[in-house]
Amino acid sequence: WGRCKSKRNMKNKTVVITGANCGLGKATALELAQRGARVILACRDPEKAQKALIDVRSRSNNGVLKIMELDLSSFDSINNFAKEFVRSEEQLDVLINNAGVFQCPFMTTKEGFEMQFGVNHLGHFLLTKLLLEKLKQSAPSRIVVVSSALYKTGCLNFETLN
User: Which PANTHER family does the record match to this protein (predicted)?
Assistant: First the structure.
Protein backbone atom coordinates (compact mmCIF):
# COMPACT_ATOMS: atom_id res chain seq x y z
CA TRP A 1 0.00 0.00 0.00
CA GLY A 2 1.04 3.58 -0.42
CA ARG A 3 2.69 5.60 -3.11
CA CYS A 4 3.94 3.92 -6.26
CA LYS A 5 7.70 3.45 -6.04
CA SER A 6 8.19 3.05 -9.80
CA LYS A 7 9.97 5.86 -11.62
CA ARG A 8 8.88 4.67 -15.08
CA ASN A 9 8.91 7.32 -17.77
CA MET A 10 5.49 7.59 -19.45
CA LYS A 11 6.54 9.79 -22.36
CA ASN A 12 4.66 8.92 -25.58
CA LYS A 13 2.04 6.99 -23.57
CA THR A 14 -1.65 7.93 -23.68
CA VAL A 15 -3.64 7.40 -20.49
CA VAL A 16 -7.38 7.82 -19.92
CA ILE A 17 -8.46 8.37 -16.31
CA THR A 18 -12.16 8.38 -15.46
CA GLY A 19 -13.11 10.75 -12.66
CA ALA A 20 -9.82 12.61 -12.95
CA ASN A 21 -11.14 15.94 -11.64
CA CYS A 22 -10.66 15.15 -7.92
CA GLY A 23 -9.35 12.66 -5.36
CA LEU A 24 -7.38 9.64 -6.51
CA GLY A 25 -8.13 10.35 -10.16
CA LYS A 26 -6.64 13.83 -10.00
CA ALA A 27 -3.63 12.60 -8.00
CA THR A 28 -3.08 9.87 -10.59
CA ALA A 29 -3.36 12.41 -13.41
CA LEU A 30 -0.73 14.58 -11.72
CA GLU A 31 1.66 11.68 -11.17
CA LEU A 32 1.37 10.45 -14.75
CA ALA A 33 1.65 13.97 -16.17
CA GLN A 34 4.85 14.46 -14.16
CA ARG A 35 6.17 11.29 -15.81
CA GLY A 36 5.46 12.73 -19.26
CA ALA A 37 2.25 10.90 -20.18
CA ARG A 38 -0.44 12.33 -22.38
CA VAL A 39 -3.32 12.34 -19.89
CA ILE A 40 -6.98 12.45 -20.86
CA LEU A 41 -9.22 13.52 -18.01
CA ALA A 42 -12.52 11.73 -18.65
CA CYS A 43 -14.97 13.62 -16.46
CA ARG A 44 -18.70 14.23 -16.13
CA ASP A 45 -18.43 17.92 -15.19
CA PRO A 46 -16.44 19.99 -17.73
CA GLU A 47 -16.00 22.95 -15.33
CA LYS A 48 -14.50 20.80 -12.58
CA ALA A 49 -12.38 19.01 -15.16
CA GLN A 50 -11.05 22.34 -16.46
CA LYS A 51 -10.04 23.41 -12.94
CA ALA A 52 -8.30 20.08 -12.41
CA LEU A 53 -6.53 20.35 -15.77
CA ILE A 54 -5.21 23.83 -14.93
CA ASP A 55 -3.97 22.62 -11.53
CA VAL A 56 -2.34 19.45 -12.91
CA ARG A 57 -0.75 21.35 -15.78
CA SER A 58 0.74 23.99 -13.46
CA ARG A 59 2.04 21.43 -10.97
CA SER A 60 3.43 19.01 -13.55
CA ASN A 61 4.80 21.38 -16.19
CA ASN A 62 3.19 19.05 -18.72
CA GLY A 63 0.97 20.60 -21.34
CA VAL A 64 -0.12 17.31 -22.86
CA LEU A 65 -3.46 17.14 -21.06
CA LYS A 66 -6.92 16.91 -22.53
CA ILE A 67 -10.47 16.89 -21.21
CA MET A 68 -13.12 14.62 -22.66
CA GLU A 69 -16.64 14.63 -21.27
CA LEU A 70 -17.80 11.27 -19.91
CA ASP A 71 -20.87 10.53 -17.80
CA LEU A 72 -20.67 6.90 -16.68
CA SER A 73 -24.35 6.96 -15.69
CA SER A 74 -25.33 7.27 -19.36
CA PHE A 75 -24.69 4.60 -21.98
CA ASP A 76 -25.15 7.30 -24.65
CA SER A 77 -22.38 9.39 -23.08
CA ILE A 78 -20.11 6.35 -22.83
CA ASN A 79 -20.74 5.43 -26.46
CA ASN A 80 -20.11 9.03 -27.59
CA PHE A 81 -16.89 9.21 -25.57
CA ALA A 82 -15.60 5.94 -27.02
CA LYS A 83 -16.47 6.89 -30.60
CA GLU A 84 -14.75 10.27 -30.26
CA PHE A 85 -11.72 8.72 -28.57
CA VAL A 86 -11.28 6.03 -31.23
CA ARG A 87 -11.74 8.64 -33.97
CA SER A 88 -9.33 11.21 -32.55
CA GLU A 89 -6.63 9.23 -30.73
CA GLU A 90 -3.90 7.08 -32.20
CA GLN A 91 -3.29 4.92 -29.16
CA LEU A 92 -4.45 3.99 -25.67
CA ASP A 93 -1.73 2.62 -23.45
CA VAL A 94 -3.51 2.73 -20.09
CA LEU A 95 -7.20 2.90 -19.18
CA ILE A 96 -7.73 3.73 -15.51
CA ASN A 97 -11.30 3.02 -14.42
CA ASN A 98 -11.29 5.26 -11.36
CA ALA A 99 -14.58 7.19 -11.22
CA GLY A 100 -17.15 6.08 -8.73
CA VAL A 101 -20.11 7.13 -6.68
CA PHE A 102 -21.00 5.91 -3.21
CA GLN A 103 -23.40 6.62 -0.39
CA CYS A 104 -25.72 8.49 -2.70
CA PRO A 105 -29.48 8.52 -2.16
CA PHE A 106 -31.35 6.00 -4.27
CA MET A 107 -31.22 7.16 -7.87
CA THR A 108 -31.13 5.41 -11.20
CA THR A 109 -29.05 5.82 -14.32
CA LYS A 110 -30.64 6.95 -17.56
CA GLU A 111 -31.04 3.26 -18.40
CA GLY A 112 -32.80 2.52 -15.10
CA PHE A 113 -30.02 0.82 -13.14
CA GLU A 114 -29.30 1.73 -9.52
CA MET A 115 -26.75 4.58 -9.70
CA GLN A 116 -23.84 3.00 -7.83
CA PHE A 117 -24.12 -0.27 -9.76
CA GLY A 118 -24.60 1.57 -13.04
CA VAL A 119 -21.65 3.94 -12.66
CA ASN A 120 -19.17 1.85 -10.70
CA HIS A 121 -19.66 -1.40 -12.59
CA LEU A 122 -21.79 -1.29 -15.73
CA GLY A 123 -20.47 2.06 -16.97
CA HIS A 124 -16.84 1.04 -16.66
CA PHE A 125 -17.58 -2.38 -18.17
CA LEU A 126 -19.13 -0.78 -21.26
CA LEU A 127 -16.33 1.79 -21.56
CA THR A 128 -13.68 -0.93 -21.34
CA LYS A 129 -15.48 -3.08 -23.91
CA LEU A 130 -15.72 -0.16 -26.35
CA LEU A 131 -12.02 0.76 -25.95
CA LEU A 132 -10.67 -2.79 -25.89
CA GLU A 133 -9.73 -2.90 -29.57
CA LYS A 134 -7.75 0.36 -29.23
CA LEU A 135 -6.02 -1.08 -26.15
CA LYS A 136 -5.12 -4.25 -28.08
CA GLN A 137 -3.78 -2.18 -30.99
CA SER A 138 -1.59 -0.26 -28.52
CA ALA A 139 -0.15 -3.36 -26.82
CA PRO A 140 1.46 -3.74 -24.44
CA SER A 141 -1.35 -1.82 -22.75
CA ARG A 142 -3.02 -1.94 -19.36
CA ILE A 143 -6.44 -1.66 -17.76
CA VAL A 144 -6.41 -0.52 -14.13
CA VAL A 145 -9.55 -0.82 -12.01
CA VAL A 146 -9.60 1.33 -8.89
CA SER A 147 -11.75 0.01 -6.07
CA SER A 148 -12.16 0.28 -2.33
CA ALA A 149 -12.99 -1.95 0.60
CA LEU A 150 -16.43 -0.33 0.87
CA TYR A 151 -17.87 -3.15 -1.24
CA LYS A 152 -17.61 -5.33 1.89
CA THR A 153 -20.25 -3.25 3.68
CA GLY A 154 -22.87 -3.37 0.94
CA CYS A 155 -25.23 -5.93 -0.44
CA LEU A 156 -26.64 -6.53 -3.88
CA ASN A 157 -30.25 -7.44 -4.53
CA PHE A 158 -30.20 -9.33 -7.82
CA GLU A 159 -33.98 -9.01 -8.08
CA THR A 160 -33.77 -5.22 -8.45
CA LEU A 161 -30.74 -4.56 -10.65
CA ASN A 162 -32.89 -2.30 -12.80
Answer: PHOSPHATIDYLINOSITOL-GLYCAN BIOSYNTHESIS CLASS F PROTEIN-RELATED, RETINOL DEHYDROGENASE 14
